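Late entry, evening session. Most of the bench is empty. Finally got around to the prediction I had been postponing all week. Sequence below, unchanged from the version circulated by S.P.
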Amino acid sequence: MGQPGSVPSAEDPLRLDADEADAIAELFNIGMGEPAAALSSMLGEEVHLSVPSFAVSTRARITSEVGDELDGDQPVCAVRGAFTGPFTGEAMLIFPERGTLALVGRLVPVDPAAEAPGEMEQDALTEIGNIILNGCLASLSNLIGGELLGAVPGYGAGAPAAVIGSGTDPVLFVRIDMALAAGDASGHALFLLDIASLDAFREAIRRALAGL
């Protein structure tokens, strides 16, 4: 994984100077702040966020990296939706099944014997995903001075490769780790940006830098 503030090598298709690299982490850090606070208030428990990290990667590699941290090839639950605007891509909130049950159990009654989310739990996770993902996109829209339109997020479940994908085309991968303070639910907010729109993304970063 690329680290916050890291500068990709000259061979990397995304060329960022140090200020732009720092700005990516800062933009997503700001973008996630308000929706994470809203979720904390809803759950009655603090939601911890990692510093955003990023790299030019592929869905296959992301599946391998993130899947290993989400119980390997065990089923995961995700809320995901495409977004369009100055740059395009897909936003995704992903948790392992056990973490999903622990997370939504703060909002709805969950059968202690349940091994996978039922319809009510899926709806609750979808609402959480809507708060986090579209809340972040709305904040980013304000920061870059251009509207990012997120599709209504949809629920999906399965092996990490089925949820994240296994393609080998390059994408810019931004990742924020999330965890409840109690430690029984942890997952990731992922933003996969199309390489075709990287020039527009770089220009949006520059505009945001000017306003920070």
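Two things to note before I forget:
Strands lie at 47-49, 53-58, 76-84, 89-96, 149-150, 154-158, 170-180, 186-194.
The longest helix spans residues 18-43.
Will write this up properly tomorrow.
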